[in-house]
Amino acid sequence: MDPAKHPVEPPKKRRIGVLTSGGDAPGMNGAVRAVVRMALHSDCEAYAIFEGYEGLVNGGNMIRQMYWEDVRGWLSRGGTLIGSARSMAFRERAGRLQAAKNLILRGIDALVVCGGDGSLTGADVFRAEWPSLLSDLIAAGELTPEQVEPYKVLNIVGLVGSIDNDMSGTDATIGCYSSLTRICDAVDDVFDTAFSHQRGFVIEVMGRHCGWLALMSAISTGADWLFIPEMPPRDGWEDDMCSIITKNRKERGKRRTIVIVAEGAQDRQLNKISSSIIKDILTKRLGLDTRTTVLGHTQRGGAACAYDRWLSTLQGVEAVRAVLEMSPNSPSPVITIRENKIMRTPLMEAVQATKDVTEKIQAKDFDAAMTLRDAEFKEYYHAYLNTATPDHPKMILPEGKKMRIAIIHVGAPAGGMNQATRAAVAYCLTRGHTPYAIHNGFPGLCRHHADKPISSVREVKWLESDSWVNEGGSDIGTNRSLPSEDMEGTAKCFELYKFDAVFMVGGFEAFTAVSQLRQARDKYDAFKIPLVVLPATISNNVPGTEYSLGSDTCLNTLIVFCDAIRQSASSSRRRVFVIETQGGKSGYIATTAGLAVGAVAVYIPEEGIDIKMLSRDIDFLRDNFIRDKGANRAGKIILRNECASSTYTTQVVADMIKEEAKGRFESRAAVPGHFQQGGKPSPMDRVRALRMSIKCMQHLESYAGKSRDEIAADPLSAAVIGVKGSQVLFSPMGGDTGLEATETDWQRRRPKSEFWLELQNVVNVLSGRSTARATE
Ligand code: ATP
Fold first, then answer.
1. Smallest Cα–Cα separation from 291: which of 217, 218, 197?
2. Which of 24, 164, 171, 475 is catalytic?
3. pLDDT tens for each residue of 261-307
4. Do the record's keywords include rRNA processing (predicted)?
5. Can you tell me the ipTM of this complex?
6. Reported pTM
7. Which residues contact 11 (CB under 8 A, 6 or more apart)?
8. DSSP labels, 57-99
9. Is 119 annotated for ligand binding?
10. Edge-to-edge strands of the sheet including 45-49?
11. Is 610 an annotated catalytic residue?
12. Does ligand 1 have an atom closer than 6 angstroms to the CB of 22?
């Protein structure tokens, strides 16, 4: 090619390319959508590179400019719509030379790569070689120094897209929770037949060298035994496994047996442990009717779950911000997440740490492999071991340290309540504590003292709690009533049952209940025991946490509803659906769901609704429909929280839109109502329930043996567990700096400041609504 034929002048706008590489993962489309739209919003041009690195090497039509409408509807689509490939050509320098030339000729000097560790390694190799690639291109006469001059620096930002969740430095990769959802749905279905026939099932899950999917699915489904590559079982595992399974079935009465095996599972000599080996052992040694199920590629497909849509969107936005903020000397970042915080981590550090895990496994240094995987992984593994089989004689505490722990649900039911209770019970049994379930909240407790001793307070047995592993709602019953309705009676019952600690699971009512008990400690010694709240509410409005159990289940239920309803308008009708969400006075669910379904607007109580807003949005919709291209045409969604306005109800908003559209499009109201509380809890709610619950138990346990006054003097003896930014923390309720005084808006029943309010901005940027507002 004659270099003189190509423009020397760089384009007026910055050009950002995006590609997806390696194995496809649900959520990749959300990432591409966010990169494209955020780039356009930031006054850049966006380019999609089709078929991963193969497209970069081949150039031509495989590098295409992307416009706003091109990515419409992509959030709900599985796989990757710009294609992915494993490119041999890009592994060679000659291929990368061609790729560099293609980028320069298209004026692209920033690349967002979404893929696994291989793809990100390739990205880093490319970036490191970039100056020498440019010199070679000039030396070979392929490009002139003038052409190359504006492109001296290539900015690369990584997004981790992989179902395996094998990248160190990030809690989650784009796609891993969708895959986990697929696995849990399959195992939940197998449960029924396993129970009916008292069968054993050995289920093999994906994950290559990483056991994350296997571990999390074992937690979510209460598997009896688990095999992961990072922590092979000790020699003689065949006997251990058979003995546990026999105990669970014969002594404890469990009818179904589930064994989860990661595809990379091996023993301590690195010999593969396959599902068929395990099946043979169970069949021959125990005479157990055992079946194997290899889930295979179903784990990869399907629409992304709520978390992956949220993660890919926020990380895509962050990737563009990183591109724009990078200096020539900045190391390439990869966008990661720790707990709830999106962060940037040096790409090569993350890739190297990931490789180190594999090396440690190969060197049989399994403890190091577990530690390097990341802190959360190890914590989850131990939590699983503690709860799967309460049979660890060494873990039993001495008599003076054993506690009588009350478990109570307060407020509305939420996904994860049962799983938190199950984990608490299992942990108690492992340590020698006695778990008491208080049925039906505080009224249940006080029934005893009010009339006859009907036992609403019961010691929970392992088998009963084990069956709650995948059940929604609250099996022990939940109630909104507060202890203040009968403080005297509550104190008497605490004395009667000799409670040493209380584990409360629920929403704002649970928070209020613990606050009341704490404040009543002056009057009643019975409350001078450790009290802890594990937030569980779909409203996610508990001070002290950015995440409550149940909110993820609710979001997933909502997006299924929204996807289906949007699809119903895909053929010819131009329709706007105004969908009413729950959440009380908190707009969290509406906003996060808005982000996950790509809503054109979200109406929340924090902002209210006014006539100007509606009029602006109707104009925006009109414009939006005009620009709609045939291929991606589908219904549009506005989410309206149930308390956003008392005047502009969901029906009124829908009617106004219809009226003002003047026949160009129509509008319908839809109210999913209690459907949003969800059926079976999402895997994320299940695994987080386990982890948080165990932390709560350990927290309560730390007070064992202390005097009542010592306990009351410690602010953390009445606390809330929560995710705050990148950490999981206990926050004290009382005291000058406690949650009650500093972070609680008591009147509006919510935290004073909400981390998620800024997400409203992202929804508006990605729907284009913010631009429409700015041009008003
Ligand atoms: P998954 O985790 O789903 O397998 P991955 O990104 O790890 O995804 P790989 O097949 O390892 O998948 O890598 C994808 C592509 O990245 C490769 O086909 C190759 O084009 C490129 N790539 C990987 N490693 C390198 C490398 N060291 N140098 C150059 N390119 C590489």
1. 197
2. 164
3. 999 999 999 999 999 999 999 999 999 888 888 887 888 878 999 99
4. no
5. 0.92
6. 0.93
7. 45, 107
8. HH-GGGEEEE-GGGGTTGGG--S-TT-----HHHHSHHHHHHH
9. yes
10. 63-66, 45-49, 15-20, 110-115, 155-160, 333-338, 341-346
11. no
12. yes
